[in-house]
Amino acid sequence: MQEHEIKEIMENVANKKLKVEEAITKLKFLPFEDLGFAKIDHHRALRKGFPEVVYCQNKTKEQVAYIVKRMAKNNSTVLATRATEEMFNEVENSVKNAEYNKISKTIIINKIKKIKNGRILVLSAGTSDMPVAEEAAVVAETMGNQVERIYDVGVAGLHRLLKNKEKISEANVLVVVAGMDGVLPSVVSGLFDKPIIAVPTSVGYGASFKGIAPLLTMLNSCSPGVVVVNIDNGFGAGYFASLINK
Questions:
Q1: d(CA 23, CA 19)
Q2: Would the pTM of this model clear 0.90, i.e. be above it?
Q3: Do 98 and 138 lie in a common domain?
Q4: What domain count does the chain have?
Q5: Are 157 and 99 in a shared domain?
Q6: Is the Cα torsion angle 67, 69, 75, 80 positive or negative in sign?
């Protein structure tokens, strides 16, 4: 429940448009709601400005659907990550306006779509990095940011990156996603004066060690202005980019 929703309830009680008992019912599950298998933190939107995000991996489709249903009742925006199409189909049976992004594997319910000023730009080194890059983009968009994507601009063909220098220069924050050698964030940081959130992916052959090699490359970047999130953590990158843009 967002701050403006709390204010609306209080104003309606003060103006006698809402009974005290009805207001109590609306606020009953504000701290958290115990579902038995999960405890939903409904208070998080009030504390952090954005609701708790549902991490779907290793949950059953029934668990995901019930959590999303309960969250949708108390929040205008709901985001679920690492969701399968089977999970989305279960959600769709009980929740209206749910959308599914097949690339990022996210479920989104967004009743209020406000676009903030400023732009977040998400770049990926290769097409194989798109699922992680798209997760970052969807998260940032759901949090109310203007987001643009530029995919497949890795250092194996640097001219592809340089062709987009104007778009990169106009962005407030850059999320740069790369597997393999993981060099792209350092290259971008050396060319542009933007804060960069680097995301290593598990894309690559054996010696990339499922993302450890690009992770170490990014952590050892010689160009200042680069911070690094965990391997394949598009969600964390999109969330942090939104905080910077805000």
A1: 6
A2: no
A3: no
A4: 2
A5: no
A6: positive
